[in-house]
Every structure is written in C-alpha cells, then in structure tokens.
C-alpha cells in the first residue's frame, strides 16, 4: 500500500468541542475487571507437561466471597442507607483491574514442565477473604 | 522461578483496620450488629465463612504444590 493511502490516526485529529463533564455515578458498581491472556505454544517438542491455574474456578470463588460479604452486611446492618455507605466504601477497595498476559513458547525441547501461576487472582481472592473474615470478626461471629 | 507468592498477600492487620474504620465511620456498632443477627443466622454465616476459607485454602494450596514440584525439578 502506498504510504499516502494509509490511514493514520494522527491525520484525523480534529479539534472538536469536548463538553464532557465529570459525573459522579450514583451507584458504584462493583467492578472487577480481569483479563487473563495466556498463550502456550509448543513446537517440535516431546514430553511437555503443562499445568495452569483454572481461572474460571478462581473467578467463581472470587464471586462467591463477594456475595458472602454482601450477605453478611445485609444481615448485620438493618439501616439501608448506612449499609449502602459501608458497601460502597468496601467496594472501592475491592475494585480491581488486572490484566495478566503470559506467553510461553517451547521449541525443540524434551522433558519440559510448564507451570503458570496467576498471582493477581490469588492475591485478590486472599484480599476478599480477609475482608470477609475481618467483617465477621468485628461482628463477633467467629 | 522467583515468585514467592505468599509475600504479595495483603497484611491481615491492614485489612482489619480498614474494615473496622469503615464500620466505625458509618456509625455501625458492635452491639447493634449483634442484636440484628439471630443465633441461627450466626451459625449459618460461620459455616459459610468457614466453607469459603477452605475453598480459598485449597485453591492456594493447589498453586503452591505446583510451585514446589517446579522447584524440585530446577
């Protein structure tokens, strides 16, 4: 393609009015964004053993703990306003954005063991559990 | 491999202080909480937390075992 014909993002930098105003969302949605990108390429090799973390299982465990935190708070605090306020503050801490990209390439090798470990998700699960336990301890349930 | 995953975990104390301060700030009192939850509910919550704790432990353990076997092979 001719260089002139190429579409280039910077050629189209129009000055348009940007009238975006900052809005505070009334309700903060519990946001957990996790992207796990894992590539394992094995070429021309033999006896390669691959072990990866089951991300789906980890995510569902994470979701369960979040639900549990919600359940405990809704049982414990009768007053809706205060409950929402507590929830919101906790959610600010729980809000996480994580991206995990791993690429593993094995080529012309024998007897290889590959272990991949998603530290992000492990940490997040641990944090959520600790929050749950801390709440429950404060409530004198444990 | 150089990941000592355990060290990345948030400190228990930090989380506890945080939760405590959030509850305190919103005027949530221990006594009030206690009166809102019946003994039966308490027991249920206890079991729920224990169950989740076990699941997390199992999850972390399965990762750790993988790491250990990895180290053995190095």
Automatic annotation (TrEMBL), chain A:
<keyword id="KW-0167">Capsid protein</keyword>
<dbReference type="GO" id="GO:0031160">
    <property type="term" value="C:spore wall"/>
</dbReference>
<feature type="domain" description="Spore coat protein X/V">
    <location>
        <begin position="85"/>
        <end position="141"/>
    </location>
</feature>
<protein>
    <submittedName>
        <fullName>Spore coat protein X</fullName>
    </submittedName>
</protein>
<keyword id="KW-0946">Virion</keyword>
<dbReference type="InterPro" id="IPR011428">
    <property type="entry name" value="Spore_coat_X/V"/>
</dbReference>
<feature type="domain" description="Spore coat protein X/V">
    <location>
        <begin position="22"/>
        <end position="77"/>
    </location>
</feature>
<dbReference type="Pfam" id="PF07552">
    <property type="entry name" value="Coat_X"/>
</dbReference>
<dbReference type="GO" id="GO:0030435">
    <property type="term" value="P:sporulation resulting in formation of a cellular spore"/>
</dbReference>
TrEMBL record, chain B:
<keyword id="KW-0175">Coiled coil</keyword>
<feature type="coiled-coil region">
    <location>
        <begin position="30"/>
        <end position="62"/>
    </location>
</feature>
<protein>
    <recommendedName>
        <fullName>Spore coat protein W</fullName>
    </recommendedName>
</protein>
């Amino acid at each position: 393609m001719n260089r002139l014909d190429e579409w280039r993002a910077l050629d189209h930098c129009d000055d348009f009015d940007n009238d975006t105003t900052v809005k505070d969302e009334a309700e903060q949605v519990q946001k957990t964004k996790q992207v796990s990108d894992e590539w394992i390429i094995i070429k021309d090799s033999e006896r390669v053993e691959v072990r990866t973390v089951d991300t789906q299982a980890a995510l569902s465990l994470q979701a369960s703990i979040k639900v549990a935190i919600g359940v405990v708070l809704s049982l414990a605090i009768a007053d809706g306003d205060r409950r929402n306020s507590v929830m919101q503050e906790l959610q600010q801490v729980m809000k996480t954005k994580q991206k995990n990209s791993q690429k593993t390439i094995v080529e012309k090798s024998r007897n290889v063991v590959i272990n991949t470990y998603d530290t992000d998700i492990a940490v997040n699960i641990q944090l959520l559990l600790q929050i749950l336990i801390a709440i429950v301890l404060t409530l004198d349930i444990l | 491999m150089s990941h000592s995953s355990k060290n990345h975990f948030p400190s228990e104390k930090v989380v506890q202080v945080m939760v405590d301060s959030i509850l305190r700030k919103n005027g949530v009192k221990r006594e009030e909480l206690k009166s809102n939850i019946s003994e039966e509910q308490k027991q249920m919550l206890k079991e729920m937390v224990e169950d989740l704790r076990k699941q997390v432990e199992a999850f972390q353990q399965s990762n750790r075992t993988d790491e250990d076997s990895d180290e053995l092979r190095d």
